[in-house]
Amino acid sequence: MNLSELHKTVFQQDSVSTKIPELENARLQEPAPIPFTFETIGWKILGIVILVSILIILLLWIRNYIKNRYRREALQELNIINTNEINETFRILKNTAIKAYGREKVGNLYGNKWLSFLEETGKEVKMLEFENAIFNSIYRDKKIDQNIYSRITENSKKWIRTHA
Q1: Cβ-based burial of 52 (10 A; exposed 0-12, middle 13-18, buried ≥19)
Q2: Residue 51 pLDDT greater than 70, yes or no
């Protein structure tokens, strides 16, 4: 007896089909599929947590949107202003600062202190470099160069968008 015949006889003797001939043509019976439903308590808890999270995020977004309304209005006013109306630009900035920081803190600021306040409270806002041009325009009624005015306006818009 060679190795392959020995192998066949050993495995055929161990085979279930040689012991029980009825199983040879029998079909394998699979269990019924387990239904996937959301009827357990864990899914309900997860659903509630997700809904509450979405509701909280939505409420925070709405609160932030309402809170920043004064910024949007100030930016609209700045966009409407005619060129070279520096007084109107700084009136809008002062009103916006009063709404954000209160009249007690901002109301008495003017001159260099006012421009320093704008630089300190805004991100990357540069107003002090235009100090002479601003004061000549406001107090001496001199016209500002259009390039300088547009840079002041851009810094004003940047301050409105970025102040704390």
Answers
A1: exposed
A2: yes
Cα–chain center distance at 56: 14
Task: Point out the domain boundary residue: 42, 65, 88.
Answer: 65
CB atoms within 10 A of CB 109: 16
**Cα–Cα dist 36/29, whole Å:** 21
Q: Which residues of 113-152 are buried (b: 16+ CB within 10 A; e: fewer)?
A: ebbebbbebbeebbbeebeebbeebbeeeeebeeebbebb
Q: How many domains does the chain have?
A: 2
CA 94 – CA 87 distance, rounded (Å): 10
Q: How far apart are the first and last CA of the chain?
A: 94
**Assessment of whether the complete model's pTM goes beyond 0.85:** no
Residue-wise pLDDT tens digits, 71-82: 999 999 998 987
In the predicted model, what is the mean pLDDT of residues 106-127?
A: 92
Expressed as residue numbers, the domain containing 22 is 3-65
